[in-house]
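Example record used in the benchmark description.
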Amino acid sequence: MASIVPYPRKDDRPDRPTRWKVYVNGPGGKRQCRAFRGTKREAQHWAEEQEAANRAHPAAQAPSSQTLREYLAEWLPSHAARRGIRPRTIEGYAYFAQHYILPALGDMHLCDLTPVILDEWLRRLQTEPTPTRERLAPATVARIHQVLNAALKAATQTDRIPANPLDRVAKPVAKRKEAAAFTPEECERIRVEAGLRRLGPLFVLCLDLGLRMGEALALRWGDVDFERGTLAVQQGVVEVRTDPAVLADPKRLAALWAGTAPEEKPQQRRIYQGTKTAAGKRAWPLPPTTASTLRVWCERQTVELDFARREGTTVRNTGLVFTTHAGSPLSARNVTRDWYALLDAAGVPRRKPHTTRHTAASRALVDAGLSPVETAAMLGHASPAVTMQVYAHMLDPSRAAAGAKVSAALEREAERARAKKAPDAAMNPPHAPDSHTR
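Model output (C-alpha cells):
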C-alpha cells in the first residue's frame, strides 16, 4: 500500500503543498521512495499506477527455480566471453566455485539465498579450517566474495532475483601487504651466486628491470635489441592445469564450473598471451651490465643447443631467451625451485621471485629518483596511481605525499581525456572496411 507525505518547498503555502514523498512497494517487495509534484489526488493516482506496474514486473512474479549451481554454470561462460577474462582467472573462478561456493550453497535456489545465510557462510570461510590449511587468508575470502557477488549482481540485472543479498552483508576486508624489497647487501649476494648458476641471467634481468616472471619467461631474442640497447616486453606466459580447449568451450566450461566435468589428470599447460595491461607492452633501455649478461647467456645457449643436436636430442627452435638445454620453454615450478636454491646458497631469506620486481621498483623510486610516471612506465603499470598505491611506503613521507598528489592529478586528467574521447567516438563511428581490405 502506498503512503504519501507532504514534501513542501520554501515557496509553497503550508496549507496547500504541491510536492509529495510517495512510498510504494518495489518489484521485489522493497520499499521505494519517489518525489512527486502536483496535487495529493494526482500523487495518489500516480502511486496506484506505479504499484500496478511494479506488480507486473518479472522480478515480482514467481521466484526463480534455478539452483545456484545451475545458474553459475550458465553465467560463467557468458561472463567470461563478454568481459574477455583470461584463462588463468577463469580457472581460479572454477576452483573457488568447486571448493568453497558450491559445496555449501550450490543446491540452494537463488531466491532462498538470504543475507543471514551468506553472512554465516562467509564467517565459516574466515574462521573454520580447510583440508589444506588452518584457515583461508582474508585476501582469498575477499576474492571468493567477489566472484559470487558478480554472479548475483548479474542475476538481479536479468530479473532472476529482485535484489543482491550480498549487498546487505559486510564485505570481507583484506589488508594489502607492503611490498618488501631486497637490501643492497642481499642484492649483491644474489648477483654473486647468480653468476655461478645456469639460470642466473634470468634472475639478474628481473632484478634489474623489474619484469614479471611470466614476462621474462615469454621474452624472445627478437625483443632484445643489443645495438640500440633496448628490451621490449610484448607478451607473457601463464601455466594452467585445465586444458585451454575446455576454457574456450562454453559447454565444457559450464560443466567445469558446475563441478560435473570428468576428472582429468592435473597437467601444467602454457598459454602465451598479451601483457597484463595495455601499458605492460613496453620498451625500456637495457643497462650495459644487463646487456653484457644477456650476451654471455646468448652465447651459452647457442653452445648448449649445438651440443644437444650433436647428441641426437630433439631441439626446439622456440626463439625464447630462456629455455632448457634442448630449447624447450622453462617450467615456472622449476624456475621457482632454482630461485629458492639460489637464495639458500647466497644466505638470503627465502622470498618469492616477484620480490625482484619490488626491488627494481624500490631502486628506481628511492635510489635513482625516478618519478612515479617513469617508474610506472618501467614496470608496465596501468597508471602511476597503481605504482604509488603499491610502493608509496618505500618513499619518505613528504615524497610519498607529493607522489600521491601527482598520481591523483594524472588519474583525473586521464579520466577527463577518456570522457572527452567517448562522445567524439560516438559522433564519429569508425567506417566499415572496404571489401578488399584484409
